[in-house]
Amino acid sequence: MHTLSDNVSDVKLLRLLQQGRKDAFEALFKKYYHPLWRHSVKYLHDSHMAEEIVQEFFIYLWENQQTLTLPNSVAVYFHVAIKNRCLNYLKKKIHLMIPIENTTDILGYEPDQLIAEELSEAMDEAINKLPEKCKLIFLLNRQSHFSYKEIAGHLAISIKTVESQMGIALKKLREHLLKHGVRLLIWMPMIKETFF
């Protein structure tokens, strides 16, 4: 088996992982474990649970290596996967915290849940409607927390291009959300942090 050089691309490593290469898995683990752990802590505010989430993700990668899809950006794919796992964990945690006797209290819980779900769907729809380049840059910045400089280096483009594409992305997202009736929700922390 050939030894991997340090400059093997992430996509190549994922392709080698599909072939069962343990060294490719180890290289991805070494490169992404700590950034993904930090990303997870931002959502969970719990370092131990963040560690567990990231470990489970890498176990999933190893166990499902043959059926993995090859994304355009491994970094974005990994960060979005971790974000989704964190959000799923938080949803379950919140559900468990609601006392059984209160679960039928529709006025107490249902409206907030419906608003959150509707908002989440509108956000996903808005992001998915972006042109591919805008979408990738937006996700790298707002979900993976890459700086403009890091994005420019990662995608081999200028910082000015990143700024321009982010401007286009944010304008389109605001227009989409306002058009879809979330005008009264723009002060919600999740909306402000992601889109404004």
Q: Could you tell me how far the N terminus lies from the C terminus, measured between alpha carbons in angstroms?
A: 50 Å
Mean pLDDT: 77
CATH superfamily (homologous) name of the largest domain: RNA polymerase sigma factor, region 2, helix turn helix motif
Number of strands: 0
Total helical elements? 9
In helices, the fraction of residues equals over 70%
* Broad CATH class of the largest domain: Mainly Alpha
Low-confidence stretches: 97-112, 182-196
Could you give the topology of this structure?
Layout: H1 10-18, H2 22-44, H3 47-63, H4 74-97, H5 106-128, H6 132-143, H7 148-155, H8 159-179, H9 189-195
Helix pairs in contact: 1-2, 2-3, 2-4, 3-4, 4-6, 5-8, 6-8, 7-8
Family: Belongs to the sigma-70 factor family. ECF subfamily.
Pfam families: Sigma70_r2, Sigma70_r4_2
Domain RNA polymerase sigma-70 region: 28-93
Write a short abstract of this structure.
This protein has about 200 residues and is an all-alpha fold. The chain has nine helices and no strands. InterPro entries: RNA_pol_sigma-70-like, RNA_pol_sigma-70_dom, RNA_pol_sigma70_bacteroid, RNA_pol_sigma70_r2, RNA_pol_sigma70_r4_t2, RNA_pol_sigma_r2, RNA_pol_sigma_r3/r4-like, WH-like_DNA-bd_sf.
Structure description:
Belongs to the sigma-70 factor family. ECF subfamily. Keywords: Sigma factor, Transcription, Transcription regulation. The protein has 196 residues and is mainly alpha-helical. The chain folds into two domains: 92 residues, RNA polymerase sigma factor, region 2, helix turn helix motif (Rna Polymerase Sigma Factor, Chain: A); 90 residues, Winged helix-like DNA-binding domain superfamily/Winged helix DNA-binding domain (Arc Repressor Mutant, subunit A), CATH 1.10.10.10. It is 73% helix and 0% strand. It has nine helices and no strands. Helix 2 packs antiparallel against helix 3, helix 4 packs across helix 6 and helix 6 packs across helix 8. The longest helix has 24 residues. The chain is globular, with a radius of gyration of 19 Å.
